[in-house]
Write a structure and sequence with these properties.
Dna Topoisomerase Vi A Subunit, Chain: A, domain 2, 5-stranded mixed sheet, about 35% helix, Helicase, Ruva Protein, domain 3, two-stranded antiparallel sheet
Length: about 200
């Protein structure tokens, strides 16, 4: 039985549900919010409550956005024939910090993972193939993470894109500037830039 007031324990419990946050970290976060007079708890609560409000998914790249198409897909200065395929929205944020990338993105919404019950049909792979099929030439950069699931997903997409109807497509994979097993979202700008620069045909 907790000795803490119910409101405090409830917040600790909610923080504990977040990835990477254990019970001790959840307690520290809760007490930090309680003790810090500079934090506007009402504004914090409102930001959390409105997190999904007005949030939509771009019908072209499936990134999270406030408009459809998203700002990236609507930007005519970008190269729409250079498509970087990533696992999730955080990877878009990481890749778009690279000043020498002026292409667009396609967010899969995860990776193929049979153990988790995630197959190709659960990802935005069919939509990618449909999108690429409408272009007369394209380069597809497979930028899934260098994990077992990320590699399996990249290989599956590459196989699909090697069918005769996609003969106009060049398939590349980010170079090994990324350490094996590292996630894209945690890589620094220099590492990502070098991985992009040294991408290889797949």
């Amino acid at each position: 039985m907790s000795l803490l007031p119910k409101s405090i324990q409830n917040l600790i419990n909610e923080f504990s549900k977040l990835p990477g946050i254990g019970p001790k970290s959840a307690q520290r976060l809760t007490f930090y919010l309680l003790k810090n007079p500079n934090i506007d708890l009402q504004a914090f609560a409102t930001a959390v409550a409105n997190l999904q409000k007005d949030l939509i998914y771009c019908s072209i790249c499936f990134n999270m956005a406030q408009t459809n198409p998203c700002k990236i897909c609507a930007d005519n200065k970008r190269d729409h024939k250079l498509i970087c395929v990533v696992e999730d929205a955080l990877d878009v944020v990481a890749m778009d910090q690279i000043s020498d990338f002026n292409g667009v993105y396609h967010v899969l919404g995860g990776v193929i993972s049979p153990l988790d019950g995630v197959g190709p049909e659960n990802l935005k792979i069919a939509e990618l193939l449909q999108r690429v099929g409408k272009l007369n030439s394209a380069e597809i950069i497979l930028a899934t993470n260098p994990s077992l699931e990320g590699e399996a997903t990249a290989m599956y997409i590459a196989r699909q894109l090697k069918q005769p109807q996609f003969k106009h497509v060049k398939i590349t994979r980010l170079a090994r500037g990324l350490p094996q097993g590292a996630d894209l979202e945690y890589a620094d700008e220099f590492t990502l830039s070098k991985a992009l620069e040294g991408r290889r045909e797949y």
